[in-house]
Amino acid sequence: MKSKKWLIAAGVFGMVLTGSAGVYAGTQLETIKAYLNHGLAIEVNGQKFTPTGDQGKKLAPITYQGSTYLPVRSIADALKTEVKYDSQNNKVSIGSSSSSGGSTSSGNSGSTSPSTGTNTQAAGVKSKYLPADFPLPKDAKATSLIESNVGGNDKKVLLTYTTKETLLAVGTSYKDYYQTKNLSQNTQDIQADGFSIVGREDGKYAVTITGSVSATNKDLNEITVVWGEE
């Protein structure tokens, strides 16, 4: 897609960069050649967003081997999702634990029969918080799924899945789906090589969906869904 805007989700799932250069002795760090992407526009739920670090310093996305990475803490804060760094175990945790009302999962988390492509219980995707009629291709397989429900309110979903369905078909299915909803904002850019959909129903929810060819498997398409209650 010639004028495609990458949205937030890819960066949240792409926290860790790996490369093939030399490894620093005694660490898990590897040297790589990457680029600060100052020209990339970022939107969170349809609104322009600029990641920031300590003391409000602006942070640029990083582009490496065809993938784009965003700062996880800044993005999690924008989504009102908890993020913790465990220095002792060298681990980053995103989302609340199940005991506090949230959940974090990845990979194939469902075990039901394949869906007809019209609900959120596909064989490879099982979301607690997406609407029950949210369209999914029958072969959809989650590569990342982060869900939170802090304090019992404001459910948030950050989902990336792969499918062999064409980008045009998947994008059109979401376009048709949201045309039946009472949205105050509904914009689509759907093309054969990628799509972007942004929608909002005031006071209820906002959603951003993007699709592109998978960077790691050209036979698959990768779809990212960012959905959250307002």
Automatic annotation (TrEMBL):
Residues 90-122 are annotated as: Disordered. Residues 95-120 have a biased composition (Low complexity). Pfam families: Cu_amine_oxidN1 (PF07833). Residues 1-25 form the signal peptide. Transmembrane segments: none annotated. The keyword Signal applies. Residues 58-94 form the Copper amine oxidase-like N-terminal domain. Keywords: Signal. The keyword Signal applies. This is Copper amine oxidase-like N-terminal domain-containing protein. It comes from Paenibacillus xylanexedens.
